[in-house]
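Q: Structure tokens for this one, please.
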Amino acid sequence: GGDGAGPVGRGGKMASTAAGKQRIPKVAKVKNKAPAEVQITAEQLLREAKERELELLPPPPQQKITDVEELNDYKLRKRKTFEDNIRKNRTVISNWIKYAQWEESLKEIQRARSIYERALDVDYRNVTLWLKYAEMEMKNRQVNHARNIWDRAITTLPRVNQFWYKYTYMEEMLGNVAGSRQVFERWMEWQPEEQAWHSYINFELRYKEVDRARTIYERYILFSALRHLPRPLLVIVHPDVKNWIKYARFEEKHSYFAHARKVYERAVEFFGEEHMDEHLYVAFAKFEENQKEFERVRVIYKYALDRIPKQEAQNLFKNYTIFEKKFGDRRGIEDIIVSKRRFQYEEEVKANPHNYDAWFDYLRLVESDTDAETVREVYERAIANVPPIQEKRHWKRYIYLWINYALYEELEAKASKRTRQVYQACIELIPHKKFTFAKIWLLYAQFEIRQKNLPLARRALGTSIGKCPKNKLFKGYIELELQLREFDRCRKLYEKFLEFAPENCTSWIKFAELETILGDTDRARAIYELAIGQPRLDMPEVLWKSYIDFEIEQEEYEKTRNLYRRLLQRTQHVKVWISFAQFELSAGREESLSRCRQIYEEANKAMRNCEEKEERVMLLESWRNFEEEFGTETTKERIDKLMPEKIKKRRKLQAEDGSDAGWEEYYDYIFPEDTANQPNLKLLAMAKLWKKQQQESEAAEMDPDKDIDESQS
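A: Here is the predicted structure, written as tokens:
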């Protein structure tokens, strides 16, 4: 007691020091810190522990019970063990079940019942517990106890289907059909899943209760929940298509064909057009096919194909095609193929309404197989998709929809009034201030001419020229008036045309040719003069050639020569000189050869300063051909002396960025006339000759050595 009061003196000081500062234990110092040779991982430790768990322990020694006292003692010890386990963890249901099964093995049914009841108080939602409890009662032939347990189970947990299956099976095995039916009825009030309804139906069919099974099917599909209302409100339980099909097949299996057909018809009416399913119509059609009602089958397939989207009707198309191949004719097979393609085109134009190629294919298909009203409807849908951008490249495909529409109305439907309306609507739609299509105007005018309505045709073409003049429109209008032999109108149109496009050489030529045909050469010559006087022309060489040919046809050779001289004042092209020389040769007079040779002389002098040496070579070759045919030996020698020498040269190339791109070889021409005037070229020729002589002398020196080697060998 005195010691507990606390130490004094030195001992008291040590105690206070220990209390104020905690003593740190000494740690053994590791001398060798190198890693061990054999490393042990945590994974290896766990694996070894798991392997040792599987080692078989020796079985406990068998205990032989010889009298009642030992048996009671054994029971007491076992019960104490089970109760201890339950007390340690009441929620482990397996302990309760083992305890009850042990009591059941000792035929202690009352004790086992008590254990199950205690377990249900702990966890009444455990399905296994209810099943083991009921199985124990059934195993021991306690039927009423088992019924009581099943009733409690389905009342407590009505959504556990296993309880209902076991209960109905027990009643059926006991031969209590009415009791089993009553349990099924209680189950159906909970509107269970499909398999439960099928179990109930199969149960009734096992006892040949077809009418009851039909009633269950009716409830299975549509369940009348609010019977107190004047008009019962139907609550849909399982309205899937497959359930309607099963119901109909049930009726068909029992040879109630009228009832089966009625079920299919009700299903079609029930789902309507908003929730159509191809499987229902395929099953309906196959049913009618089995009944040999082929027309009904055809109607069903066509009704479904007209209303179900194409991507959802692949199986329907397949079955319809098979049916037509089996029972239909060629026309029926073609109809199904056309229907399939129509669905395909419909999907394409729905996905992209401005896909005009798809519209063309669709219209081609519709025109070949359907009536005029349907074709018109598709055309109207197609032309309603106007290109969103007012650019001609976007309208080029679209405008052919209108053209095809008009041609269909005229040629196929024979409706001239509607054709005129189509053309007029198209013309009003096109934004002529930005662009136009001459084809539409010309087709409209040609249509009016076919209808013998010339004033309307002229009015249309006149309007087109006034609104949006184009070369094609002028040409088409002029061609029309030419066919009608209205030459005064043609002259006026040509005047308008040339005011619109004065650079168009073809128009000038055609106008002059028209006047030539009409015999008015003065007007034709005046037109040509106006044409060559224009400051800008698209093909002036064609115009000059046409004018020259015109004068040659009129045998006005002096005027032709004047034209050539005027043309040569504008251009020194080699083809003009050659053409001039050939004209003089073909004039057919005595001085034609001298005139032709004189032209070649002038041309050669004029082209000495020409940069294009190939053109000068072309002229000399033409001159040589002329001399070979009509010239003398002197003239032939002279022209041969004028022919150039063809030599190969190299020149340096430069890339686009100015860097060196290497060398290129090309051919150049050296004319004798130019050589005489340039002494440098003479020097170059002499140097080449000297080099050639040097090479020949070196070759001559090498030949004797070669002969000596050969003799020694």
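A few notes: Confidence is low (pLDDT under 50) at residues 1-21, 223-238, 704-713. The chain is about 70% helix and 5% strand.
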